Amino acid sequence: MNITLLLEHGLNGLQFGLMLFLLAAGLTLIFGIMDFINLAHGSLYMAGAYFAASFTGMTGSFWLGLLAAVIATALLGVILEVVVFRHLYQRDHLSHVLATFALILIFNEGARMIWGAQPLMLNIPPQLAQPVELLPDFFYSSFRLFIIATGLAVAGLLYFVVTKTRIGMLVRAGASNREMAITMGINIKLVFTLLFAFGAALCAIAGALLGSILAVQVGMGESILILAFVVIVIGGIGSIRGALAGALLVGLVDTLSKTLLPGALKLLMPLEMATNLGPALASILIYVLMAAVLFYKPQGLFPARG
């Protein structure tokens, strides 16, 4: 395989992994601290993408649209936490799953009613429309490089906030021992609300950036939500460091396996069979990776507890 093609797909895997991290970071903190299973987290990602497309169309600016989408999605997260989720914290996990699955259906039908069933296009900003030359004769999308830089910047900011600030201390205390944190006088309701707003804002960033590459459409949150759960299981529930490591692993394995496996299989079997089998095996590899990690480290690579 051409080395430049391999490098391109490696960068694509890094970009996809960092976007998965934006979803998984909020999800793992909510799950780790609140012991709350939020299947509607992917719907916030979808809402962020639709908000970005709408606000970009209204303002004519991708950057203003992105900012407005982050604010609107964060407010939506606060509303959901106060109106719906706050009444479910004392319920069992089955109640969490049923309630948030109902929200998925409500969000999907609501998006279909407001924006229609056809996908929306979210154009990338003109400043990042041209590719850049990273190596001699190797050009790469400047917008994808911006996504990578954004993901790394958010990861660095999260690391600083969680490890160096008082807010981060409260988050780490809640992730390690929620009952003790409540006993020590931490306003856990406020922490929960801020966490939902923060997680929703990260979803909006991921939805707007990936929506510019893919398409903004109804149901776009479900498939990526499954990968986000795989990420937090691999990385360790409640761990930001684990979410980053798991997201990069999943992003690289998913992207590179879809590139390398079909070509490798063509050397071992007929072309038609290799073409059909390659993508299927590539999709399975993510779950094989998760099973392998859980076999050797049942609590994930970097568990928050213990």
From TrEMBL:
Membrane topology: Multi-pass membrane protein
Entry's transmembrane regions: 12-32, 39-56, 62-85, 97-118, 138-162, 190-218, 224-253, 274-296
UniProt keyword annotation of Transmembrane helix present: yes
Keywords in alphabetical order: Amino-acid transport, Cell membrane, Membrane, Transmembrane, Transmembrane helix, Transport
Subcellular location: Cell membrane
Family per similarity comment: Belongs to the binding-protein-dependent transport system permease family. LivHM subfamily.
Full protein name: Branched-chain amino acid ABC transporter permease
Native source species: Undibacterium hunanense
